Structure formats: C-alpha cells, structure tokens
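Sample pair:
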Amino acid sequence: MASLAESDVTLLTYRHLRMVLVALPLLMFVASVGTFLATGTIQGSISAYYVGPLRDVFVGMLVGLAVCLVAYKGAPVEDYALDLAGFYALFVAFVPFQGYLEGLPPGEFDAAIVGVRIVTISVLLVVAVFLYVERRSGHWAAEKMTAKGWQARLFYRISQVMAVAFLALLAYRTFVETPMTFDSIHLVSAYLLIISLTVAVATHGWPTAAGEEPLPEPHLGWYRLLVLLMTVGAGLAWAVASWRWRDHRTLIIEWWEIVLFAVFWGRETVLNWNRPTPTSAPRPGPG
C-alpha cells in the first residue's frame, strides 16, 4: 500500500486535532444529557459533574482540551493565548471546585488533599520542563508575539502579571493555607481559561492589533460578533439566567462560552480544511 506523503500526514493530523477539540466538549454534553435522562437531575455547573459518574468524563475532557490547545500552532498571539488556555484548563480539571473537599469525611479529606497537592506540583514541574524545551527549540510563542506590535506586547505583559498572581494564589493555597482547601483556584482557573479563549478569538476579529494581516470584512464581522457575545453577551446571559434559572446560571454561562468558542473553531476549521492556518496571511475562504 502506498504511503501517505508528508504533506498529507500533516494535513490529516491538523484536521483531526481540530475535530477532536470540538468532539471533547460534545462528549461532555452528550454524557450530561444522558445523565439527565437516566436520573432526571441537572447539575448547577459543569464543574459539579466532578462529583458522580461523570467525573472521569469531566477530567478527561479538560485534559484532552488542554493537550489540543497547546498542540495547535497558529499565529503567535493566538497561539500564546491558546497555550495559556490549555495551562489553566489543567487546573480546572485537577483542582476540585470550592466546597467539595470540605464535604468529605475526615479520612477521605486528608487523602484528597494529598492527591490534589501532588497533582498540582506535578503539573507545574511538567509545564516548567515543557516551557524550557519550547524556549530552547525556538518554538515558544511568547518570544514571537513580542515583535508583533505594542498591543501584542501589552497583552503579553498583562498575561504575565495574571499568571504570576495565579501562581502566587496557587502557592499560598498549596503550601501555606491551613486547613488546606484549595479554595478559589478552580474558579480563578476557569475565568482565566475563558479570558484566554476570548483573546484567541479576538485576534481574528482585530488581526492588525495582533500584528497579522487584515482579513476580508465578512470574516472580521463574524469574529467581532463572537467576541461581543463572549463578553457583553455573557453578562446579559448571566443576568437572564439569574432571573429565570438561578440554580443553573453557572452551567448556562459555561456552555454559552463553550458553544461560542466551538462556533469559532468550527468556522476556522471549515475555512482552512485543506491547509493548516497560515501564520501571517489572510484566509480568503467563503464569505
């Protein structure tokens, strides 16, 4: 049997990477619907599925998303934002939401604390090694984005401050706080994950600010609308959900953001189905 050309292998790998990133949240959604049909219950947030039969699906989905977000290579600012999103997704996956540990029996509480602490330290060590290799190999997106203009440099500096603040919070909750409960780490990680994904979408709505060539106007309109929905729209959705479905408002907002990013990702996948996304050239595609 004839072997695939190297370009074909690259293209197929690129396509599968993009499809898997959509398939993973779809798996979580289908499993959530299945749980509702079987038990008649809906959790108040996606994170609440950390408790119960969907825990493995929840953790596996987020770890898989983190891998895909880091593995994907796009334009420097987009790539850097997605790398950050992948980093924060790991802590959403591994660190339980606030109140979970306190509800455990004493023996299980102690074991869970040790487990979360080990996983947290392990993630930081592996990420440090990964960043070292990326920097030595010349593939670290942060080094490339600083040459993309003042807006890109500003985002880089702000993201650095936010990352340092997050690491300080993580260090305090992991090594100093007594009793150790890891409060707010999960929530802050989720917020930073959503912010990073929104920035990745914004680099397509305002490509010149990201140091890239401008896209055709129809594309700019689509991406800017998605950014508006992920920010202002999310606030409006939160207000409506707080009024009508208060117990499930967090779940609604989480899926709101996931679906909008999936729309962005799906559109980019269709436009670039036959070739990986160029790092600096406009993508004509269908209007």
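Residues 6-271 form one domain.
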